[in-house]
Amino acid sequence: MTYLIGVDCGGTHIVGQTWTTSPEHLVQSVTGGPGNVVLDYTGAIANLTGVLDQLVAPIPADQVGLILIGIAGIETAGHADEIQQLVNQRYQIKTRVISDAKLALLNRLAGADGLLVIAGTGSVVYGRQTGHFLRVGGWGYVLGDEGSAYDITKRAFKQILTRTDAGQTSQLTKPLLAQLDASSVPAAVQRFYAQNRQTNAQLAQLIASLADQGNSEAIAVLVASAQALAQQVITLYQRFETPRPQNIVLSGSVLQHNQLVRAALTTAIHQVVPTVKFNDITTNNAHAALYWHCWAQEENN
């Protein structure tokens, strides 16, 4: 029997899974700590090998056909070859390392061509056509990540600062200061810069809650963030050669849990591309190991 191991190394946690192919069966699933190599390379590698140790231990190495690893931040960090070699040497098993976004694309489209939008803590738009990858955005929280949780928080802060500079008070000021336990706008800004990216991104939940309560400025922030991401989706869609994909996969906590952002995104896209349909990822992306052969065959042709 041949086993395949898939590992999804996200910014908040790692999920590793062992699968058999005939029949398709989940043998084992293991969860570990954060896996973003940009934020904490040493910690991410320790978490990754900890998960892999548990997955590999019960199976003879010669029965594992592949370890496929998708890692958050790998394209920015540039450590793919290094990590691939490390895992190869540690377990003596064929290993491939790609970004977590590509892993999600492979999983949801089952190896076929298409387009994927991810909006969680960060964001990126990915596509694949006839063996070629297309990408828009995903340039990190400082230079990009439109439509992400971090982007929502950043836009809310900018709204507050714009009103403050005009001698006015934003509808968002009081609740955001309370959430940060800050006595003034300057104190809130100081706290924002002192906190890490993940903590700041979590403030988007407050903006979403305010929008649900009818806060017009919170609604405007969410819509603007979604529309910025939609423009990136449209940009990538138009880079596809005909026939262009008719399915767009939506992934990430923002698009899965915030219906206002999701609706604003899909509405903006439909205004330009009215025929596309939107789908969700329903399985963990470690499941993508089952479809790697589709991409590998194209690479070998």
UniProtKB/TrEMBL annotation:
Keyword match tRNA processing: no
UniProt-recorded Gene Ontology molecular function terms: kinase activity
Keyword Transferase carried by entry: yes
Domain of life: Bacteria
CDD domains (alphabetical): ASKHA_NBD_eukNAGK-like
A Pfam family matched in the record: BcrAD_BadFG
Domain ATPase BadF/BadG/BcrA/BcrD type: 5-277
InterPro entries hit by this protein: ATPase_BadF (IPR002731), ATPase_NBD (IPR043129), Euk-type_GlcNAc_Kinase (IPR052519)
Keywords linked to the UniProt accession: Kinase, Transferase
PANTHER family assigned to the protein according to its UniProt record, in alphabetical order: N-ACETYL-D-GLUCOSAMINE KINASE (PTHR43190)
Protein name as it appears in the record: N-acetylglucosamine kinase
